[in-house]
Structures are given as C-alpha cells and as structure tokens.
Amino acid sequence: MGYDDSKHAHHEPPSEKWVDTAGAQTAFTAERDETFADSIKKNKRAVLWSLMLSTAIIMEGYDTSLLPSFYGYPSFQKHYGDYYPDIDGYQLSGPWQAGLSNGANVYCNLCWAIGQLIANGILQGLVTNTTKWGYRIPGPFNGSGLLCQKTLARLTDSDSDRLNATISQMVHTIEIEREIESGSSYWHCFKGIDLRRTEICCLTFATQMLSGAQFAYGPSYFFLQAGMDTEDAYKLAVGSPALAFLGTVLSWLLLTYFGRRTIFLGGISTLAILLFTIGMISATTSANNDSALWAQASLCLIWQLVYSLTLGPIAYVIISETSAVRLRAKSVVLARNTYNITTVWAAVLEPYMIHPKEWDWKGKTAFSGAEQVY
C-alpha cells in the first residue's frame, strides 16, 4: 500500500483509517527473521551515513581525554603547576584540575545547546508558515508517506513492497503511542508510562559516569600517583583506548546473543567488583609495592575492556530503544544533560581524591566508583 503525499500534506497525523496494519506486521516479521549480515547488506547506505555522522564524536573523545591526561604530563605540570618539596615534583592543584575537566565537559554540552538553539530558532521563524514548507524546511521527516518512501529508497536496497511495509510499521508504532497518550512536549516525558522511560534513559546515561569512568577511563594520572614511571604510565594509557575499541567491536556479538538487561546488569556488577578489588589492593599494600601497583593498573585495563563490552555501548542502545518515537529527541536531551551533570560532579571530586596534596586516596578512589554502582 502506497501513500499519496497530496492527500495528507495539510491534515492531522495518520489515523486508523489509513494505517496498514498488515503491512506493519509484515515489516515486524521481516525484521525479526533478518540476520545481522542481511540487515547490514540491505541497509548499507544507511549504515555508512550513520558512521559518517558519528565521526563528529571523535573530537569530543579527543578533547575530554586529552585535557585530563595533562594532569600528569611533566612539561604541563612544570609550566602550570606548583612545586612541592616534600614530593620533589610539580603538581596541578585540585581546583585547577577540576576546572580544566569541567571546562571541556561544559563546552561539549554547550555544543548540544547550540544545536538545540538553532533548531528552535528555525522552528520559531517558520511557525506562521502554513504551507508544507513550514515543516519540511526544519527537518527531513515530515510524516509524508511519499517523502518517507523516497528517503528509505535512498538508504536501503529493499523493494517497493518492503519499503511500504516499513512505512506502515513506522506509522503503526506512532499510532500505538498515540493510543497510550504519548505527547510530544518535554512535559510529556514526565507523564504516565513516559516517566518510566525517561527515568530509564537518564539513569542509564548517568550510570556510565557513576561506574567509575572518571577514575578508570583516563588512568594515566592515577598510574603516576600510584608510583608508576611516567613513560610506563602513558604507554598503558595508550593501551586503554585500544581496549575500548576492541571491546566496543566485540559488544556487537553480545548484543546479538544476550538481552539488554542482562548485558547492562552483568556489566555494572563486574565493574563494581573490579573497582572494589582495586581499592582493596591499594588499602592493604604499601605505596612502594610494585606488584600491587601493576595489579591495580592491570585491573584498570580490564575495567576498560568490560566497560566497552557492556555499559559503554549498551547505554546508547537502551536509550534509543526505550524512549517513545515522538519523544526520542527530547528523551535523549534529558538523558544527556543528566550525564553532563553527573560528569561535572565527578570531575570536581575525582581530582581531590587522587591528588597527593589533597585527599591522597590513590587507588582507594576506586571504592567511590564501586559504591556508586551499587
């Protein structure tokens, strides 16, 4: 069943009168029976387009990893830090470190806000435009079956029957959500069943940081304060994101064979055990124990691998699948802002925990992450 763009250009969203339920069921069945390889093959252009857009995040990872790594960088410490005779070395103060980290995190959040400002500005400027261009100019999807069909045809290799079935599936999903009173404003994110969805999305994103990411994801400064040689510390710091890359790729296999809840709960449980073990080693051994130092460093790298296998990637899957279709963008904004708030909080406390002239917890900082996970 196809859709005539002219019939629906100025009407309300789809109604039961023209929702093709049979087509929607066909699309659901086809997706359920489709293998991962078949899905990639049929949607290769959509996959490549998604990969291209996602590369913008590379620079966010660069910024948020680079600045904290400067904490222990010898030349940076000497230029911007203070000399402490009792430790015979330079250190950036706790407030200095907290401000540096939060400056990077706040800028990333500012970029999100800029994008939202542009979107809302365009919408406000076109609010009095009563033609179809009033909603076509701001975004690529306008509810039109014909335009939707053309867009899908450019992104997939499916035939016309499969395209129409997919469109019917999209319309049917929106209609189901309409029946359970799913609105489209931020207020609706906190009403009825959507409140539960919002809670899941926000807490899932926050758990990424609460699981010890601020401590273990950029471990070079921790390695240095634990007594590791500078060169060895930064060599291990290079291996950390390499393990993150490997873990993320392997997570595709986990997503194929295990449920989201299983991966999420299994991941945070394992991370908590690793962090608790790091803390215990630090609390029960002397500061000059090389074996204990390398044991803590190894566990940090294992933490990185487990995080990238489970909690790291699965959070994005859970958030995209949990939120209602018409509230997805707003749910992601709320979840991401929850993550940013948690990150700012963690970035303030963590430098004080590790800094030798502040709280000087060293590896015992891991206890904080283990406690937060539970």
TrEMBL record:
Keyword Transmembrane assigned: yes
GO MF annotation terms: carbohydrate:proton symporter activity
Subcellular location: Membrane
UniProt key word Chaperone: no
Database matches in SUPFAM superfamilies: MFS general substrate transporter
TM helices/strands, residue ranges: 200-224, 236-255, 262-281, 293-319
Keywords linked to the UniProt accession: Membrane, Transmembrane, Transmembrane helix
InterPro entries per record: MFS_sugar_transport-like, MFS_Sugar_Transporters, MFS_trans_sf
GO CC terms, sorted: membrane
Topology term for the membrane: Multi-pass membrane protein
Protein name, per record: Maltose permease
Source organism: Parascedosporium putredinis
